[in-house]
Amino acid sequence: MATLLRKAARVSLSGSLLSAGGRPGRLYALSYFGSNSRNSSTSSKVKVDLDNSSGIAVVKFQGPPVNSMGMDFLTEMAIGLDKLELDKNCRGIILTSAVPKVFSAGLDIMDMYGKTLEHYELFWRSVQDLWLKLYSSSKIMIAAINGASPAGGCLMALSCDYRILADNPRYKIGLNEAQLGIVAPFWFKDSMVNTVGYRIAEESIQFGVMYSPADALKIGLVDQVVPEDKVLSTAKEKMEKWFDIPDHARQISKSMMRKPTIDRMLANRETDIKNFVGFISKDSIQKSLEMYMAMLKMKKG
Ligand SMILES: CCCCCCCCCC/C=C\CC(=O)SCCNC(=O)CCNC(=O)[C@H](O)C(C)(C)COP(=O)(O)OP(=O)(O)OC[C@H]1O[C@@H](n2cnc3c(N)ncnc32)[C@H](O)[C@@H]1OP(=O)(O)O
């Protein structure tokens, strides 16, 4: 019976939940995925390693010093995820970091500072695009969070189906935007509400709270806290449990849960871009970002 279920589970719905939802999907070249038992691709900021025999792809962020989500990172992630989404050998994706102590520092502040309005628009569209791909992926997504995970880093984790955080009090996680003088957009907020519930999200976002592993576990922001050297192996073990569920049933259930949030973002996408460009280009906001960057540098020296 278990074998039968596993076989049935192999018959996956094609495309992300976005295309399963009736929206047109896009086709990308599958150049690097052949029939070997392992397929790897490394670009400058992201390494994708798909093990065909297990069906697990590990997507490793490798953009030192802090895996900030600049244009290169966003583009490489989008391409990598598109390829995995179309690959029938891949059933689950683990997001993790190759950079010690940091999962991701979130959006690259330099992409939001001193740039043209056109740049801000393109940048924000790319951020939206990555979130849509992560949040609507038909694959099982597990975040193996092996370092600090503020703001956009936390958003990537929130987009996954399951979150495992390394037990190190320095590895804080949360949507800290308010502390920078900026505002977490509604789809960041929705992702948080969908994970921890309204009341906790309300406080969390207004204060820009960064949670320790113990507190993140307590509020349900992460599902498991494990010793640092066990984060990836635990993610792989957990993935095997998710694999016991037939893909079609899991995918439809996931879509049912996430579609309203995805639809809300799609319906408000252009307004959200306009809001971002208007907000981020304000002198007062640019000043806040400048001061924040200076503070980060001072902390070092
Ligand atoms: C009406 C409503 C409209 C809505 C409008 C929307 C508004 C905008 C919404 C924006 C949304 C998303 C926000 C983000 O994701 S913003 C990014 C937030 N990130 C942070 O606050 C993290 C800041 N970084 C840290 O806390 C630490 O760096 C760390 C991650 C804990 C790591 O600590 P560390 O000691 O190991 O490293 P550190 O010395 O601090 O940093 C090394 C160098 O990296 C630079 N750096 C750090 N973070 C970023 C970043 N996010 N972007 C760019 N650069 C970053 C840091 O300055 C150091 O640089 P250098 O070596 O000194 O040159």
Mean pLDDT: 90
What's the CATH H-level homologous superfamily?
Answer: 2-enoyl-CoA Hydratase, Chain A, domain 1
Name the strands of the widest sheet in spatial order. 1-2-3-4-6-8-10
State the helical fraction: 40-55%
CATH topology: 2-enoyl-CoA Hydratase, Chain A, domain 1
Largest sheet: 7 strands, mixed
Low-confidence stretches: 1-14, 20-35
Compressed to H and E, one letter per element, the order equals HHEEEHEEHEEHEEHHHHEHHHH
DSSP E strands, number: 10
Number of domains: 1
| Beta strand % | 5-15%
N→C terminal distance: 61 Å
GO biological process, one term: fatty acid beta-oxidation
Family: Belongs to the enoyl-CoA hydratase/isomerase family.
Subcellular location: Mitochondrion matrix
Pathway: Lipid metabolism; fatty acid beta-oxidation
Description of the molecule:
This protein has a seven-stranded mixed β-sheet with strand order 1-2-3-4-6-8-10, with helices on both faces. A three-stranded parallel β-sheet has the order 5-7-9, covered by helices on one side. Strand 1 and strand 2 (46-51) form a beta hairpin. The longest helix is centred in the last third of the chain and has 21 residues, at 247-267. By secondary structure, the protein is of the alpha/beta class. The chain is built from 13 helices and ten strands. It has helices at residues 2-10, 17-20, 71-86, 117-135, 152-158, 177-180, 186-196, 198-207, 213-219, 231-243, 247-267, 269-280, 283-300, and strands spanning 38-42, 46-51, 56-61, 92-97, 101-102, 140-145, 147-150, 162-166, 173-174, 224-226. The protein has a single domain (2-228, 246-295), classed as 2-enoyl-CoA Hydratase, Chain A, domain 1. Bound molecules: ligand LQQ7U7AH. Ligand LQQ7U7AH binds next to strand 5, strand 7, helix 6, helix 12 and helix 13.
